[in-house]
Specification:
By secondary structure, this protein is an alpha/beta fold. The protein has a domain of 106 residues: GMP Synthetase, Chain A, domain 3. Helix content is 31%, strand content 24%. It has 19 helices and 32 strands. Strands 5-4-19-18-20-21-22 form a seven-stranded mixed sheet, sandwiched between helices. A hairpin with a 3-residue loop joins β30 and β31. α7 crosses α8 and α10 packs across α11. The radius of gyration is 24 Å and the shape is globular. The termini are far apart.
């Protein structure tokens, strides 16, 4: 299989970028024509950023699973789509061919239909990293149900909030999941999340860990039983068939919840046509994928990286992906390198957090591991620091593998800014150049384009995008106004990313981090308000304020300043109780790294907490806290500085 839209030289990149600027509709017409459509679109693009209103490939009809699976069957049916590496390295590896994937996805689609799922219904998926998770995602897409995958580390309360917001009627889960040395009781967590829920009709449970679970008559059914019955319906005389539902290009494909600057998670909506085209286009170009390459994206499908670069993007390209159930440090810190060696991985795409964590174990875990199959390395989730970039380059890539430093977000659907592996120049810790079709701009606080360089000869400002690309967020589920205010209202006629950035003379971009009240912890976005809400649920907490601070492994750590009415036992016990509360309300990924007890918070006379001051204290700045004379009680700042952890 060749990819007519693959860029093969710097010259071709420049030509493609120029065309995407001068004739965006003609450019995307051409790219989109290489995917499977039931009916060609009548109009390529209709948009404004005021409402906001974005529509791509208007009138086009398709089902994304036909581009991901069906079209590959005649020539590549026996080619592996997935190589599943289990949590325990001694367990059996599963190889899922495109034929097997097709059969399983058709079975899941039939199973969902048998259980009453219809086009447009929302199906929540809360599973470990097993192939059945991919079958569930694509089975939903096959019948036009909207999937909403929830990461297996979220708490019952977080799931309940998402189920309520999406008005989900069906859940697919596992009895439990393995993650490193832990067994996570997923079904029990779902049961807790469903207390008081009135919308969920059915829970389908896949057996993974054989953890004892409670099965409620009439509501809960076993995956295995349902799939066995569905198999008799979709397979006749060895031929598997389940017709894919015809979808409009702008029908929702999935909802994925992400943290915002308020306590309530927001459901980012991506649609069938534009998302398909963008993930396929960026996968082939950023990673310079060649037929036969083995691609290993280490993300969880509970996050957007897993959706776009384990599931949809690689499958549209007929790629082979490694899917990994475990964690990089279990049973030891050589696990990634074992997987690369064992499966002869060509492309490794992971997070800077994982790289920094593995750096901490030194070079011993690399001994005896053959990494010579690697051709391309990638990073995702947060900007990579230079030290980690050079370690990755030297010890993993042996200075022979281009590193793609990809910048993008849940809301963008796929990579927006990145070098193309071996095609466009790399620059350590810089995301570098935008993809064709992406037009970034740096603006100041007033939305005016930054035209003056700073003392280092760089342009510095808030990163915005001028025009829509095919997989731009369409709305936030059930609340379009929230989408407008979050992304399009800050700077008129621009999509605001929430990130700050630098730009050099050559047009390369370096992302400097969030400029709003959202933290980037281990590549996962966590809203400060969401963490504060969870802390404030603790019975002894009066008020709290949360900020980020530099963390050697995670990139950003969570620093919480907490006012308590009284402290039970000692401070350490109260700290642990607060951490337990956050784990119960959100999940362990949101636990603060440091909790400092304070008697008051720096507030203006109108009652606004000055997080700017708290951030500087957390970062270790004591002398340069800015003007504190406008505070209600300036003395509180001195006390906080003295008590800094």
């Amino acid at each position: 299989m060749s990819y007519p839209y693959q860029i093969k030289s710097l010259e071709e990149y420049k030509t493609a970028y120029k065309k995407s600027e001068e004739d965006p509709e003609g450019f995307w017409d051409d790219v989109a024509s290489h995917f499977v459509w039931r009916k060609k679109w009548e109009k390529t693009l209709d948009w404004n950023f005021i409402e906001p209103h974005v529509r791509w490939f208007l009138g086009g009809k398709l089902n994304i699973t036909e581009s991901c699976i069906d079209r590959h069957l005649p020539a590549m049916g026996e080619k592996p789509a997935f190589i599943w590496e289990p949590n325990d390295p001694n367990d059996r590896v599963r190889v899922v061919t495109y034929n097997r994937l097709h059969k399983r996805v058709c079975q899941v689609a039939q199973m969902l239909k048998n259980n009453g799922v219809k086009k447009g219904d929302r199906v929540c998926i809360y599973m470990g990293m097993v192939p059945e998770l991919v079958y569930a995602v694509l089975g939903c897409a096959r019948i036009g149900a909207v999937h909403s995958v929830i990461f297996g580390g979220f708490s019952a309360q977080s799931i309940a909030d998402r189920l309520y917001d999406a008005e989900a009627t069906f859940i697919i889960t596992c009895d439990g999941a393995y993650r490193g040395g832990k067994d996570i009781p997923l079904k029990n967590i779902i049961d807790d999340a469903l207390i008081g829920n009135r919308t969920v009709k059915k829970v389908i449970v896949y057996t993974r860990t054989r953890t004892p679970v409670s099965m409620i008559k009439g509501r809960d059914v076993w995956w295995e039983d349902e799939m066995d019955y569905a198999e008799t319906q979709v397979e006749k005389d060895g031929v598997v068939h389940f017709p894919a539902e015809e979808m409009d290009a702008e029908d929702p494909l999935f909802i994925l919840y992400t943290s915002g600057s308020t306590g309530k998670p927001k459901g980012v909506v991506h649609t069938c046509g534009g998302y398909m085209v963008w993930t396929g286009y960026t996968f082939v170009n950023v990673f310079q994928y060649q037929p036969g390459d083995v691609h290993f994206c280490t993300a969880d499908i509970g996050w957007i990286t897993g959706h776009s670069y384990i599931c949809y993007g690689p499958l549209t390209a007929g790629a082979t992906s490694v899917m990994f159930e475990g964690v990089p440090t279990w049973p030891d810190a050589g696990r990634f390198w074992d997987i690369v060696d064992k499966h002869k991985v060509n492309i490794l795409y992971t997070a800077p957090t994982a790289i920094r964590s593995l750096m901490g174990f030194g070079l011993e875990p690399l001994k005896g591991k053959d990494l010579s199959s690697l051709k391309i390395l990638g990073t995702v989730g947060e900007p990579i620091n230079e030290e980690a970039w050079h370690w990755y380059d030297e010890h993993i890539g042996k200075k022979k593998c281009p590193i793609v430093d990809t910048w993008w977000q849940t809301e963008t659907g796929g990579v927006l800014i990145s070098n193309l592996a071996g095609i466009t120049p790399a620059k350590p810790s810089w995301a570098t150049l935008p993809m064709p079709g992406v037009h970034p701009i740096l603006v100041d606080e007033n939305g005016k384009e930054v035209t003056e360089k700073d003392e280092h000869g760089l342009y510095k400002g808030n990163l915005c995008i001028k025009n829509p690309w095919p997989s731009i967020i369409r709305t936030t589920w059930g609340d379009h106004e929230r989408c407008r205010t979050n992304y399009f209202a800050t700077y008129p006629n621009l999509y605001f990313t929430g990130d700050g950035a630098l730009k050099d003379e050559e047009g390369n971009f370096r992302i400097t981090g969030r400029v709003d009240d959202v933290l980037n912890v281990s590549g996962h976005r966590i809203g400060t308000a969401e963490v504060e809400n969870a802390i404030n649920m603790h019975a002894d907490v009066v008020e709290s304020a949360v900020v980020g601070y530099p963390h050697d492994i995670k990139g950003q750590g969570i620093y919480a300043y907490v006012i308590c009415s009284h402290i039970h036992g000692d401070e350490e016990q109260t700290r642990n109780n607060i951490l337990q509360t956050v784990t119960r309300v959100i999940g362990p990924i949101a636990k603060p790294d440091k909790i400092q007890f304070v008697s008051g918070l720096p507030k203006t006379r109108s009652g606004k907490i000055m997080r700017r001051i708290l951030r500087k204290i957390a970062e270790g700045e004591k002398g340069n806290l800015g003007d504190t004379t406008t505070l209600l009680d300036p003395g509180v700042v001195e006390e906080i500085v003295k008590g800094k952890l």
